[in-house]
Amino acid sequence: MTASEGGANQLVDMMNGALESTIPIAHKMGVKVVEARPGFAATSVPAEGNGNHFGVIYAGVLFTVAEVLGGIIPLITFDQTKYFPLVKNLDIQFVAMAKSDVRAEATLDDQTIARVETEAAERGKADFTLEAVVTDADGQTVATDPRPVSVTRAQELIASRPAASAPRARSRRPAARARRPSSGRARPGR
Questions:
Q1: Would strands 141-153 and 102-107 be described as parallel, antiparallel, or unpaired?
Q2: Domain holding 100: CATH number?
Q3: 69-77 vs 59-67: helix crossing angle, rounded to 10
Q4: What are the phi and psi torsion angles at 72 (to 5°)?
Q5: Using one digit for the tens of pLDDT, what is the confidence trace for 151-162?
Q6: Contact (CB, 8 A) for 108 and 117
Q7: Which domain holds residue 113?
Q8: Is 78 within a domain?
Q9: What pLDDT, on the 0 to 100 scale, is given for residue 157?
């Protein structure tokens, strides 16, 4: 094993650990990152345990194996201490039924990577389209997922998020008390 292969395996292991902890349902489906390097990632999922009533892989599983690439590729391609990926839209096209394990792949070319890095540095965010292709064990395309993704400066996301730990303003109104009838007698219907 070369040093670059060792680094690639380490990155795949790191991405699988992150996937397990951040998207537990994907882990339960068996989604695994099988290749990862800047500008490219591939995931896979087994057919076993992911079937539907037609005996093919459930559409939600095909969606998931493709969708996770929208987070993985930006995280390994761009400086994750500065930028955070946000999938802006999904439009998956199911083109064939999958009866075997599947693999999803997506690539960002060097020119797109350079443009996104420049725009994000200048404007705080940059958009790009990531096209995932899902294939079965025979190499037949079963789904495609072209989606717009944005990398956004991390501090801008934090600044736009409502403060979860901010103390709530107290109401000046006294706490509600049990109501008593003014005459001292119970009124019918209350």
A1: unpaired
A2: 3.10.129.10
A3: 10
A4: -65, -50
A5: 888 765 555 555
A6: no
A7: 3-156
A8: yes
A9: 55
